[in-house]
Structures are given as C-alpha cells and as structure tokens.
Amino acid sequence: MKIERLSPDKIRIFLTFDDLSERGIQKEDMWQEIPKVHDLFTDMMDQAYNEVGFDATGPLAVEVFALPAQGMVVIVTRGKYDHHQYMGHIEDEIPEDVYEMEVTLEESDTIVYAFNDFEVLIEAAHVLQWNITKAGKLYNYNDKWVLYLEPADLDEDKHPSLIAVLAEFGESISTTEAVLEEYGKVIIPEDAIGVICHHFARQE
C-alpha cells in the first residue's frame, strides 16, 4: 500500500492485488458495503494519518480506479459536513470521527506509467522493446514523462511481464488520456517505445 498526498484534502492510495488478496478481497468487492472492505478502508485511513497526516473525519468521496494486472488506485477527497443531511438528529449526537463514504468505481484497460527521469524511461524502453512492437504514446505532464499504452496494441499474454518492467522503472498513475491531452504535452504521438530506442542509447 502506497500513499501520496495530493492536496490538504486529497490523497492517492495505490493498492496492489497482493494488498487485496491478503485481506480476501476481490476487485469487485471494492464498492460493496462489506466488513472486510470497511476494515481495509479503516487501515488505509489509519496509514494515511500516520504517514501523511491526512485526517479522515467528515464526509469522504472515494474514487476507485481498477488498473489491469496492477492493482487499484484509490483517490480519497475530504469534504465538509452538510448539516442538512443530519436533519432529525441532535447535532451533538453526530460523532466527530465517523466518515461517510461516497464510492465510485472506474475500470480502465489502459496502462499508464510516469517516470521522473528521462534516462530511466530510456532504460525501461530498451527493456520493453522485446515485448512491444509498435505501441505507446509519450506525454510530458506535471514535470514527468508519462507513457500511455492502449491494450489493443499489446499482446495480452505479455501484460504481466510488461507491468513488472514498468513497475520497476516507473510509477503507475490513474491519469486519463483526456487529461493528458488537455493538460499535458504530446512528445511522441505513436510508437513511443520504438522511437525512444531508435534515438536514445542505453547508459552503459
């Protein structure tokens, strides 16, 4: 479980499938109100408080992004109490530490990884070129190099090895293509892996 603070009221949590299987949770369970999912969420909030000081009191909007062969990205945004929701309750009876979750789930087949250093991306591209023929679009977004891969361009049987390489060199992100197109800059519009390998040599 990896936690990153995005703003004072928002965090991003990356859950691997190992994190889920250790708790007996399937991907489809994540939007259900079942005890083991509630326990997982409690653990996430405890860890978020301990690691990044994120206080989960108040209503929370929870977005769950399922990523192929990688795990899940959970975006938690803290809101404020809407006292109109508690009509009929005595205000003093509203517990301060209770959080109200609104969970939405999106599933994406795309594979998106960010790299802080272009040299690291070059190294990853040279390793990947043996598994990928012509695929990938490269963006510059938030001062990072973002490699965007469409599943239709990839051999499904090679997904696990592909993910293993990408996870070694980069960081999985849930940014959509629409966001990358609007707020990022397209550096290589197609065949990014091949273009990088052709123009840039690996470091010895």
TrEMBL record:
Pfam families: MecA. Signal peptide: none annotated. Gene3D superfamilies: 3.30.70.1950. InterPro entries: MecA_C_sf, Neg-reg_MecA. NCBIfam families: PRK02899.1. Belongs to the MecA family. This is Adaptor protein. The lineage of its organism: Bacteria, Bacillati, Bacillota, Bacilli, Bacillales.
